[in-house]
What does this fold into?
Amino acid sequence: MRSMSRVLSSDKAEAAMPETVEEVLSLVRSQGGRVTTSRRLLLQALFDASGHRNAEELAQAVQRRAPDVHMSTIYRNLDELEQLGIIVHAHLGHGPATYHLAAGAHGHLVCEECGAMVEAPDELFASLSRTARSRFGFDIDPHHFAVLGHCEACRHQHGHR
It folds into this structure.
């Protein structure tokens, strides 16, 4: 199981992220949510996933164990888990949104040529965040989108600067 010991910051309060499926389910209960089989299986799929998974991939993992879980249930659960701050979604270029545990939140650099993705640490976006806030009064969320460009190999191969 992936460790979720990193502490996330939010404007509401700083809280340690749950480290297990059961801890997440306890948080769901404390917020008035229900613990269902489909939610438990989705959380297990998220904890077991290495890297980013789109809703279809997560649904496949859930449906291997519970074939009657509908896609609408997956999306509804993803939405609720994101509202609780347990997961985040990111748009990594032109494909569907991907999901991962919030404790592993990071920025993304995606090559437009080969599709290679680099998980970039938050520090890379710190200056951009400060500038956006001071000059435009705008808070950016670097976890939500990918910065598109060209990886080193594609720059050399295709002559990009």
Remarks:
- The chain is about 40% helix and 15% strand.
- The first strand starts at residue 7 and ends at 8.
- Residues 31 and 42 are 18 Å apart (CA to CA).
